[in-house]
Amino acid sequence: MKNVYIILIAVGSSILFSCSDEESPSLSDAKKITSFSIDGATVSIDESGKTISAELPLGSEVTALTPTIVISDKATVSPASGEVQNFTNPVTYTVTAEDGTTTSYVASATVVECVDEGNVISFTFDGKNYEIVKETKTWRDAASCAVERGGYLAEINSLEEQNAIYSQIESSSINAASTTAPDGGNASYLWLGGNDFDTEGSWIWDGDNSGEGTPFWIGDSSGSPVDGSYTNWGNEPDNFQNSQHTLGLAITDWPLGSAGQWNDIDHNNNLFFIIEFD
């Protein structure tokens, strides 16, 4: 009988130790920021350096940004996700794991311009400011960039304006091979603000790509100016391959025109462009 009693004590002790182990799980030490997002921003996380970089488009304000933050399971972060922050200076985010250990990330936000200022040539004509941008973009992206910079793709409304712009282009050391349009006779062009996106053959000045603007030409190469508007087409427009709906100012000759004249070309070409400011 004594032997049985001893065995029961041993079994009971084993059960108690087993229960004690199950009731004391280890705490998580996970403490990462796995996602950090701000509306309109391009964000990257450098896990090794514990830094977060957010790039916002020109015109953005960094004084009141609201990050959405995703962190490791069972961790917390301070400042919290969804809290408005002033990113004039970098903001430190501290992540605390379930076990109480911490790590910090330094987050910064910068406003990125759509072009490198080193590729911009500014000039003035008749009291208005212009920029020649020696970076290639599609027509729509160029128009968006022009708006970001406070202007619009240039409108040419007189022979004097045409000559002033073209003279400035000629003195701007442009590499013509860097801004060519294969569908435009392989000539070189800079974007202007004209398009006929809405109705084929109805050309308007719409340098901000708003879909609205002043009409200046109706028809194809045999068409006519609207209300005496200034134009400088080559033997164009011809809507070659039914895909040419935006206006380029040629800086080299092509089979249907010469340098300085206008041509309708595909909006997906990547070309330099001219911005005008009111």
Automatic annotation (TrEMBL):
<dbReference type="InterPro" id="IPR016187">
    <property type="entry name" value="CTDL_fold"/>
</dbReference>
<dbReference type="InterPro" id="IPR050111">
    <property type="entry name" value="C-type_lectin/snaclec_domain"/>
</dbReference>
<dbReference type="InterPro" id="IPR032186">
    <property type="entry name" value="DUF5018"/>
</dbReference>
<protein>
    <submittedName>
        <fullName>Lectin C-type domain-containing protein</fullName>
    </submittedName>
</protein>
<dbReference type="InterPro" id="IPR001304">
    <property type="entry name" value="C-type_lectin-like"/>
</dbReference>
<dbReference type="Pfam" id="PF16410">
    <property type="entry name" value="DUF5018"/>
</dbReference>
<dbReference type="InterPro" id="IPR016186">
    <property type="entry name" value="C-type_lectin-like/link_sf"/>
</dbReference>
<dbReference type="Pfam" id="PF00059">
    <property type="entry name" value="Lectin_C"/>
</dbReference>
<feature type="domain" description="C-type lectin">
    <location>
        <begin position="125"/>
        <end position="276"/>
    </location>
</feature>
